[in-house]
Design brief:
Blueprint lengths: L5 H58 L32
Length: 95
Amino acid sequence: MFDVGGGELLLILLAVLLLFGPKKIPEVAQMVGKGIRQFRKAQEDLTQQIRDISAETASIVEERPRPTVTPVPESAPRIAPTPADDTDPSTEHTP
């Protein structure tokens, strides 16, 4: 993940030993461990909330009624739209 070699890791451990001393290293490691655990728990909680919201949204979508569409049979006559000018009542004639 971090691409750290053996020599680099040894150098990092030596620097930590010099900075904190042999008595503080267990305390520092414990604090780092607690921090990582808290981070993972927060990550799991967030993931669970996202799953809950996703499931709730999916159930709402499934419950919503879908509009029904009646297909038009192929044998039905096709009606061409008429222009608005042809509907003028003054030009109509009645037999």
